[in-house]
Amino acid sequence: MLASTELRPAADRRSARWEALGTGVVLQVTDPGSLGAARAAVEAELRAIDAAASRFRTDSDLERLNRAGGRLVAVSPLLLDALETGIRAAVVTAGAVDPTLGEALILAGYASDWRELEAPERGRSTERRPRPVVRARPARAWEDIELHRDPPAARLRGGVRVDLGASAKALAADRAARAAAEETVGGILVSLGGDIATAGASPASGWLVHVTDDHRSSPDAPGQTVRIHSGGLATSSTTVRRWVHAGRPMHHILDPRDGQPVERAWRTASVAAASCVDANIASTAAIVLGSAASGWLAERGLPARLVARDGRVETVGAWPAEEALG
Fold first, then answer.
1. How far lies 140's CA from each of 90, 166, 193, 252, 260, in Å?
2. Inter-residue contact 26 to 35 (CB < 8 Å)
3. Among the CATH numbers 3.90.25.10, 3.40.50.2000, 2.60.120.560, 3.10.520.10, which is that of 15-316?
4. Distance CA 141, CA 246 (A)
5. Cα–Cα distance, 287 to 291 (Å, whole number)
6. What are the pLDDT digits (tens) for 113-154?
7. What order do you get walking across the sheet with 146-148 strand by strand?
8. pLDDT, tens only, 16-64
9. Quick one: CA torsion of 247, 248, 254, 256, rounded to 10 degrees?
10. Burial of 147 (0-12, 13-18, 19+ CB in 10 A)
């Protein structure tokens, strides 16, 4: 879920940038004296979500659950929250966003940090082979995830393997922004790989966010700059986190119907919502839903910007027109 946040100059004590969870972190504060305390709070939340929900750490709570062979496993309250978030994503999108695609991602070659995978060669078309159907889990497998609140525990049935990837990152952004706001004064913006959460009082003119295909792009990259005053914003894109596996180009947004990378109308979907989690769920669903995304988003009153594979831009609801900020 990727977007670019327009940063203040590096010498300004109201922003910081670093790497965590395999992606870029951007922190902005309205009170310069709060930056150190805000960063400490954000870093603590990111360490916690990594230990709870990483698919790439053998010692994480999630991987202990994935390896449990259907046994009931004691888990941390944070992993339980992340699992509930993943299940809610599946329910509200009717399965377009599915937390049980862990095995399908591994079969697609995404078994380690994507930066360690074979990158597609720029300017060279990779051989496109027929799309196999990955029978990696039963349909609606999220309904068979068993959760217990007191004490926290979970069970995965039927050989299901969970990947919380994007939804856990969005949950971390929301939690980190709230934690930073509780430790400081003023407003907070946290961006994790472009998944943006805010807390506290925003700047009078709002937070400036430059929406692009890739969160690593500079603020002058093709895209659109918008203002948000609260809540969250997320961008899902099929143009980044790409690799080659078994001679086929891959990316990280899979179609739950066949376990393969989505090949539909939109290359990028940006959505604003009341929280980063809600924005992330909707932006991912939009990529999977393809041509049906505009209507689905409009029915839910979610402002969105959709970019077609040929670069055509379509906006939904209250999302500002391209020329709104000049």
1. 8, 19, 28, 20, 17
2. no
3. 3.10.520.10
4. 27
5. 9
6. 545 544 555 544 444 545 554 555 567 889 989 999 999 999
7. 73-74, 153-155, 146-148
8. 999 998 889 999 999 999 999 999 999 999 999 999 999 889 999 999 9
9. -80
10. middle
